[in-house]
Amino acid sequence: MLYNSLLDEKVPFVPASGPGNKSLSWYTCGPTVSHMGHARNYVTFDIIRRVLEDYFGYNILYVMNVTDVDDKIILRRNYLLAKYKEGKHTDAEVKAFAEKAVQNSFAKQRAKLAEAEALVVAAKEDTHMQRRIIACMAVSLKRNDLT
Description:
Elements: E1 2-4, E2 9-11, E3 23-32, H1 39-54, E4 59-67, H2 69-86, H3 91-125, H4 127-143
Parallel strand pairs: 3-4
Antiparallel strand pairs: 1-2
Helix pairs in contact: 3-4
């Protein structure tokens, strides 16, 4: 059994390859080279993998990436900021632009949160929807859409 935080209850663990199948494929993001604080994820998933293999007998194809994406994002941000400032914008204009961008981002996240909350309410009331959500989660886990 696994705890499904979307449904707020325990659900049976069923591999995407079907009930009773002991083969799992698992992709996860690993530590970022410039930010070792993310190494906690590596350790946590490694422990879970070992328990699934050694205690529950699963055969796991486990793939984890290591990336330097943070450096690329920071370099791109610095480049874009310099180009933006070349447009002779005042500090107040740059601040206003950034604040608007942040507010737009918050609005998008609030909309996603409202949609997720509505799904949780509906899922708790509809057992057919619970089965669909679990199936979608299994497919997402197989594709690693949840990272």
